[in-house]
Amino acid sequence: MPFELELPSKSFVVTGGNRGIGYAISRAIAQAGARVAVLYRSSADAPAVARALQDEFGVMVRAYQVDVADSARLEVVYNQVVRELGPIGGLVAAAGIAVSKPAVNMTRDDFLRIFQTNTWGPYNSAACLMRLWIRHNYHDGRIVIVSSIGGRRVSRGTSVSFYQASKAAASMLGRSLAQEWARYARINVLDPGYIATDMTSSMTADERRRVESTALLNRFGTPDEVANLALFLLSNQASYCVGTSYVCDGGIVLQ
Ligand SMILES: NC(=O)c1ccc[n+]([C@@H]2O[C@H](COP(=O)([O-])OP(=O)(O)OC[C@H]3O[C@@H](n4cnc5c(N)ncnc54)[C@H](OP(=O)(O)O)[C@@H]3O)[C@@H](O)[C@H]2O)c1
């Protein structure tokens, strides 16, 4: 019999699910037959992206506009998801921003903007859902926090110190929440390496070559390659996986 991943018959929320890595994860979930709530911040085409997935795979996929830093709006959105798509079985917190700026010029506003999205955002997305699960006495949740290998190691020649710090914090947060909420959910962290998305599209040819030479596979990864691991972590087959960070980086970190 072929090996197949099964998802709980619930709906799944993907923050940043309309573009890049998050989109590939939304697509993988829809392809696996589960309903998907695609959360986005401002891309006007997100509802059309969701409709296209719905048409392609014949499962309900809806887009919801929300800033992941906004708790009140997130709560409204989760309640709407439950009404429209049914109870939520899992979350992938993929929304994130990268800001490149010399550290000597960084401001408090830069700090707040980056940490609000990359660190508070995953916490907020997870905590709003956890409150729902506790209220409904649901004990089989799945949460994947998309962090980065940038939270583990410093990339030479870059100016992304707040990004890297925000990801290091998000990774530790994910593992801490896994411990505190283990009765309700299996929470894991996913650390992509360099992936071909809008986030990395402004890198120069030289920067790309330098990055590629640091990976055993000598190339960028694709969003689908990260989505495969996310789908596994959401699935029933990952029943003994909790509180760990998983790297998908073509062999940069080597640990
Ligand atoms: N690409 C890489 O090489 C790489 C490597 C390691 C880790 N990661 C991490 O993987 C995640 C996805 O990265 P990506 O490359 O796919 O990025 P991307 O293509 O730039 O997409 C970012 C996504 O996040 C959403 N978003 C940003 N801020 C938000 C907010 N405040 N509230 C709600 N949604 C928000 C965007 O929504 P809109 O479209 O509406 O703006 C978009 O869907 C990020 O957390 C990133 O740090 C990426």
From TrEMBL:
Q: Where is the Ketoreductase domain?
A: 10-198
Q: Name one GO molecular function term.
A: oxidoreductase activity, acting on NAD(P)H, oxygen as acceptor
SUPFAM superfamilies according to UniProt? NAD(P)-binding Rossmann-fold domains
By its UniProt entry, which InterPro entries does this protein fall under? KR_dom (IPR057326), NAD(P)-bd_dom_sf (IPR036291), SDR_fam (IPR002347)
Give the UniProt keywords, A-Z: Oxidoreductase
> Which family is it part of?
Belongs to the short-chain dehydrogenases/reductases (SDR) family.
Q: What is the name of this protein? A: Putative NADP-dependent mannitol dehydrogenase
Provenance organism = Dacryopinax primogenitus (strain DJM 731) (Brown rot fungus)
